[in-house]
Design brief:
The protein is α+β, with helices and mostly antiparallel strands and 279 residues long. It contains eight helices and eleven strands. It has two domains: 95 residues, 2-Layer Sandwich (Alpha-Beta Plaits); 180 residues, no CATH class. The strands form two sheets. Strands 1, 2, 3, 4, 5, 6, 7 and 11 form an eight-stranded antiparallel beta sheet that branches. A three-stranded antiparallel beta sheet has the order 8-10-9. β2 and β3 form a beta hairpin. α6 runs antiparallel to α8. The radius of gyration is 20 Å and the shape is globular.
C-alpha cells in the first residue's frame, strides 16, 4: 500500500498530465558567475530587461557553495520574450564571466543526502566537477545546474553514482519526463505541419515529436535534460528567501518556443490563449 502511494506521488511530481498550451508571461533562467555582486548593481542591470507590467528580478541568489568559493549561482525571473543574449550582456557588465546554465532533473525517492567527511551534500555535488554550478534536492527531485553543453543525464548519473554509491545513496531515480498532446485547429496544411514538426524537434528536451495531420494532434515527449529556461509563473512566491540554498523554484518545460513555431507556421492550437503583444 505504501509503495503504491509512493509511485502515485512520483507520477504526480513528474507531471504525468500533458503540458497545457499556454503562453507564460515570465520564465526562469539560471546563471553562474565569479565573485561578489552588489544588490544595487544587479537591480540596475535587471531594470532594463523588464517589459510592460512584468519586471525582471532575482528569485534566488547570488549564492555560493563552499566547494566553489569564487562561483555564484543566480536564478532570474524574466519576461518570457527577453532574448537570452540580452540577459548575458546585461550581467556581463557587472560580472564579466556570467554564463547561462543548463539544468537536468531526476525524480527519486524522498531522502536527505548524507554529508561526506563533514562537507554538505550541496558542497559535495557542486564540487564533483568544475562545470557543475548548483544542485537542488527537494521532495526527491534532484536538479543539477551546469555549464551548457558539458553534461547529459547519463554523465550526471555516472558522476553522482561514483560520489554517493559508497554511502548507498547513489540512485538518482528516473529522468523527469513531461508530455505534450495538443489538438490543432482546422484547417491544418500538411506541408506546414511537416515544417513545424521538424522545427519543434530541434528544441532542446523534445523527443518523439509528431504532428498527425489526420487526427490534428501534436504529440511529444519532454525530457528535462539540458534545458535552459523553465516556466516561471509564480516563481517569485515559490522561491521564498533569496538567500536560501533550498529556494530554487520548481522547474518545468517552457512551451512558449513550441507555440512560437506553430504560430510561425500559421497553425493554431485548440484551447490555447492568444499570445500577448510584444512590448
Amino acid at each position: 500500500m505504501l509503495r503504491s502511494a509512493f509511485l502515485l506521488a512520483v507520477l504526480a511530481l513528474q507531471g504525468a498530465s500533458p503540458l497545457a498550451p499556454a503562453h507564460h508571461p515570465t520564465c526562469v533562467r539560471y546563471y553562474g558567475f565569479e565573485g561578489d555582486l552588489k544588490a544595487d548593481l544587479l537591480r540596475k542591470a535587471l531594470s532594463g530587461l523588464g517589459a510592460k507590467e512584468v519586471e525582471a528580478r532575482a528569485v534566488v541568489g547570488p549564492i555560493k557553495a563552499g566547494s566553489r568559493p569564487k562561483q555564484r549561482f543566480l536564478a532570474l525571473e524574466l519576461p518570457v520574450r527577453t532574448p537570452p543574449k540580452d540577459v548575458e550582456a546585461a550581467l556581463k557588465k557587472i560580472a564579466p564571466h556570467a554564463e547561462e546554465l543548463a539544468w537536468t532533473a531526476f525524480q527519486g525517492k524522498v531522502r536527505t543526502l548524507p554529508a561526506i567527511l563533514g562537507y554538505s551534500a550541496l558542497d559535495c555535488v557542486v564540487g564533483m566537477d568544475n562545470d557543475v554550478r548548483w544542485f537542488d534536492l527537494t521532495n526527491g527531485r534532484a536538479r543539477f545546474f551546469f555549464t551548457a553543453g558539458k553534461f547529459d543525464a547519463k554523465g550526471l548519473r555516472e558522476k553522482f553514482e561514483k560520489l554517493y554509491q559508497p554511502f548507498d545513496a547513489g540512485d538518482l531515480g528516473d529522468l523527469v519526463h513531461e508530455t505534450i498532446e495538443w489538438h490543432l485547429a482546422e484547417p491544418l496544411d500538411a506541408a506546414a505541419a511537416k515544417t513545424a514538426e521538424k522545427a519543434i524537434a530541434k528544441i532542446p528536451g523534445l523527443r518523439k515529436v509528431k504532428i498527425d495531420v489526420a487526427t490534428r494532434v501534436l504529440s511529444a515527449d519532454v525530457e528535462q535534460d539540458g534545458l535552459r529556461g523553465a516556466s516561471g509563473s509564480g516563481a517569485a512566491s515559490d522561491a521564498g528567501s533569496k538567500s536560501s540554498a533550498d529556494a530554487v523554484p520548481a522547474g518545468s518545460f517552457l512551451v512558449d518556443d513550441v507555440l512560437e513555431v506553430l504560430a510561425s507556421a500559421k497553425i493554431a492550437v485548440e484551447g490555447a490563449a492568444p499570445a500577448e503583444e510584444k512590448h
